[in-house]
Specification:
By secondary structure, the chain is α+β, with helices and mostly antiparallel strands. The protein has 2 domains: about 210 residues, Peptide methionine sulphoxide reductase MsrA (Peptide Methionine Sulfoxide Reductase, Chain A); about 35 residues. Helices cover about 40% and strands about 15% of the residues. The protein contains 9 helices and 9 strands. The strands form 2 sheets. The chain has a 7-stranded mixed beta sheet with strand order 1-9-3-4-2-7-8, covered by helices on one side. A two-stranded antiparallel ribbon has the order 5-6. About 35% of the residues are buried.
Length: about 250
């Protein structure tokens, strides 16, 4: 079983044990919300970038984003649970539905920001989370979004910004005693960097898919980084998300 299932599931279970039972998650269609006259205009975008705790936290920092919620999309089971999705048996992907004010931030700008929050050079994983349910994806809600997303992906590939990126490393913990595992990882990372220099790629493996029904994740997953800041930071650090993003994007994220 992957690393994330034991770490994140444990953190989630600890929090869930201290809360009251919640109602079943409602299905939410992927269409943009209806805005009454006089209300602020809003539009919707759906992105997947591995752990939805992290993607939600990152997008809620972006000016112009008015709301971000965690959920599941793209599968074949109605009202999937977190346990089902994380086990990879429903076909769903962890994703975040974003509501934003287009007068303050455009869809193109959301995409530019999205790239910087993920590792687009890997398929069927993000950071320590491995499996189809953790792959990165852009879910378009209309043809206009599809065209913008495809153009953004093509531009990123052609820019050459990712040609230096080395593949994620994995060290078999059984092959090294605990005191040598950190050194083994560092050596593996150096070797991966050397390999990337000799075999440059820069290919973007993020999927661009039509949006289907978006199911809200359980309540204890929503705003997890606010409700459980210590557990969230522990998970994010242990998963190596920020360290990997630093390698992929360097100073571009700051």
């Amino acid at each position: 079983m992957k690393t994330r299932l034991s770490l994140k599931a444990l953190l989630a279970a600890c929090f869930f044990a201290t809360t009251v039972a919640y109602a079943a998650s409602p299905a939410v269609t992927s269409s943009a919300p209806v805005i009454a006259p006089g209300q602020m205009r809003s539009e919707t975008a759906i992105f997947a970038g591995g752990c939805f705790w992290c993607v939600e936290a990152d997008f809620e920092k972006l000016p112009g984003v008015t709301n971000a919620v965690s959920g599941y999309i793209g599968g074949h089971v109605v009202h999937p649970s977190y346990d089902q999705v994380s086990a990879g048996v429903t076909g769903h992907i962890e994703a975040v539905r974003i509501t934003y004010d287009p007068s303050r931030v455009s869809y193109e700008q959301l995409l530019d920001y999205f790239w910087l929050q993920i590792d687009p050079t890997v398929d069927d994983r993000q950071f320590c989370d491995v499996g189809l349910q953790y792959r990165s994806a852009i879910f378009y809600l209309n043809d206009a979004q599809r065209k913008v997303a495809e153009a953004s992906k093509h531009a990123l590939e052609q820019s050459g910004r990712l040609r230096h990126v080395s593949p994620p490393v994995k060290v078999d913990s059984k092959s090294y005693p605990p005191e040598f595992q950190l050194e083994a990882v560092r050596n593996a990372e150096k070797e991966a960097v050397r390999y990337a220099k000799d075999h440059p790629s820069g290919k973007v493996l993020t999927n661009i898919l039509p949006a289907t029904t978006f199911y809200l994740a359980e309540e204890y997953h929503q705003d997890y980084y606010k409700k459980n800041p210590i557990r969230y930071r522990l998970y994010r650090t242990q998963c190596g998300r920020d360290a990997r993003l630093k390698h992929v994007w360097g100073k571009a994220r700051h």
